[in-house]
């Protein structure tokens, strides 16, 4: 379970600091790790605002660095990009 949290944190940060796009990361995880849905697509599906909220509570309760705020996630949520429900997150969706 902790591995999933760590890997998502690393992957979200990878979007922010490298040339890898969200699509590149999701394709790599689907093909390389056998994920049925890429981790960033899954984050969009569940809601980036929800992910940010849950990470905030977990960090507040545990202080564990894996739950620290993620700048890219904060930026997207601050721009109203919540994922599928808003029509845009890591990816764009038809409403």
From TrEMBL:
<feature type="domain" description="3-hydroxyacyl-CoA dehydrogenase C-terminal">
    <location>
        <begin position="19"/>
        <end position="93"/>
    </location>
</feature>
<protein>
    <recommendedName>
        <fullName>3-hydroxyacyl-CoA dehydrogenase C-terminal domain-containing protein</fullName>
    </recommendedName>
</protein>
<dbReference type="GO" id="GO:0005739">
    <property type="term" value="C:mitochondrion"/>
</dbReference>
<dbReference type="GO" id="GO:0006635">
    <property type="term" value="P:fatty acid beta-oxidation"/>
</dbReference>
<dbReference type="GO" id="GO:0003857">
    <property type="term" value="F:(3S)-3-hydroxyacyl-CoA dehydrogenase (NAD+) activity"/>
</dbReference>
<dbReference type="InterPro" id="IPR013328">
    <property type="entry name" value="6PGD_dom2"/>
</dbReference>
<dbReference type="Pfam" id="PF00725">
    <property type="entry name" value="3HCDH"/>
</dbReference>
<dbReference type="InterPro" id="IPR008927">
    <property type="entry name" value="6-PGluconate_DH-like_C_sf"/>
</dbReference>
<keyword id="KW-0520">NAD</keyword>
<dbReference type="InterPro" id="IPR052242">
    <property type="entry name" value="Mito_3-hydroxyacyl-CoA_DH"/>
</dbReference>
<dbReference type="InterPro" id="IPR006108">
    <property type="entry name" value="3HC_DH_C"/>
</dbReference>
